[in-house]
Design goal:
Layout: H1 4-23, E1 29-32, E2 44-48, H2 51-59, E3 76-86, E4 92-100, E5 105-112, E6 124-133, E7 139-146
Parallel strand pairs: 5-7
Antiparallel strand pairs: 1-6, 2-3, 3-6, 4-5
């Protein structure tokens, strides 16, 4: 009976920690960006918190063939993840999770190369935007790559 008490306490603590971790998840909405944007050639992440920062970011793009999505910065912070220039696309950028870790917001992202080799590679600057509720907290991006068996990747 005395052995059951520590086990019960451990299970209770684990359950509480799991519920707290789930509560720390931040809801987000993903917007795609066209591969024709003139983003930097290397992987880069951007945190955009205001219309002024959005304008500065957009002004640094070397080309914008399609209109950028409108964003209400009174409600949202925009997180842009760019995989950089990829000669053999399409490349998929997935926001896996965004969590509030107390003093920092952690953004987990996966960049996946083509799962099957397309008949014609699509070169471009691959990126995606996630909108989260407006925040002034610092953000930490954890980006992992998932390569496939496409020989010309």
């Amino acid at each position: 009976m005395f052995r059951l008490l520590p086990t019960a306490l451990l299970l209770s603590t684990l359950a509480a920690a799991t519920m707290a971790a789930e509560d720390d998840k931040i809801p987000f909405q993903v917007l795609s960006l066209p591969p024709t944007l003139g983003l930097p050639d290397r992987h880069e992440n951007f945190v955009i918190r205001s219309p002024q920062e959005w304008d500065v970011w957009a002004d640094n793009l070397t080309s914008v063939a399609e209109p950028l999505p409108p964003i209400d910065f009174g409600r949202y912070t925009a997180l842009v993840v760019s995989a950089g220039y990829k000669e053999h696309g399409p490349v998929v950028i997935s926001f896996d999770s965004i969590t509030d870790a107390g003093n920092v917001i952690r953004v987990h992202v996966t960049v996946t190369s083509p799962t099957t080799c397309p008949p014609q590679a699509v070169a471009g600057h691959y990126a995606a935007i996630a909108l989260i509720p407006r925040t002034d907290k610092p953000l930490q991006f954890d980006v992992s790559s998932r390569d496939t068996n496409c020989p010309y990747h």
